[in-house]
Amino acid sequence: MIEIENLTKKYKNLTALDNISLTIKSGELFAYLGPNGAGKTTTIRILTGLTKLTSGCARLNGFDIVHDELSAKRQYGLVPQSINLDRELSVYENLYIHGRLYHMSTKPLKKKIQELLNYVELSERRNTLVKKLSGGMKRRVMIACALVHSPVILFLDEPTVGLDPGMRRKVWALIKNIQQAGALIFLTTHYIEEAEFLAQRVAFIDEGKIVTVDTPENLIKQQGEWAIDRIVDGMMETVYFDSREDADNYNSCMDERFTFRKVNLEDSFLALTGKKVK
Ligand SMILES: Nc1ncnc2c1ncn2[C@@H]1O[C@H](COP(=O)(O)OP(=O)(O)O)[C@@H](O)[C@H]1O
Ligand SMILES: [Mg+2]
Fold this sequence. Notes:
By secondary structure, the protein is an alpha/beta fold. It contains ten helices and 13 strands. A hairpin with a 2-residue loop joins strand 9 and strand 10.
């Protein structure tokens, strides 16, 4: 469980996080969706003890991140936004070092590494140097590293940035599997489809503030079900409809080019913040 109460982070004149409160249940897959600079990484860095908070508090499974720092740190695994692997070492060596950092003894650690390599489908690459791996493989090694000590909370900061669509889906499947094995997953993303596809609940974050928190279904429903995009006087205009019939009626009196599509989380983000996620 993650409990965040009135969390604020200031960097000189900039308020990177502004009075954030959130509760995320054990086993939940929670997405934090917002544009670049919204405060997503700052939130993760504070919860994982890498950055100091300015005010407020947070607990991981009941352990205060400031007052019970060591216990709080044992609760989570972290997959940061940038690659944190040792490029000159093999996949296996990276995982081994990670386990040793958590004081795991050799036998259970070796067993766990074998299990995780199978899990992320990299058993055949165990002796490959990290610098020889593709971006998607590196991402999967990072996820395996974060899981070595069997944490119950997994933080994933933009886990699919830079991956091609096929690899992105593979990582999505892996994330779902990890959740189904019982972990709470806190995921940040600026990809609409990622939040929509994976998350049970989504928080929209913009300029350090949480705009809303709800299930993707409810957030989308607020806008309608169908959308028509068209260009009017050089500007993109989107019209929303509750039923396909209404949309079809509207459509029949238009002769210019248009796109007919289902409403998505981008529409709801736009409605609430006045801007697009990316
Ligand atoms: N170490 C820092 N010093 C000053 N400003 C920072 C620092 N880290 C982040 N920021 C600022 O805080 C805001 C939120 O950043 P970040 O949490 O990285 O956003 P996101 O991960 O959503 O893209 C941005 O305006 C960023 O420039
Ligand atoms: Mg970030």
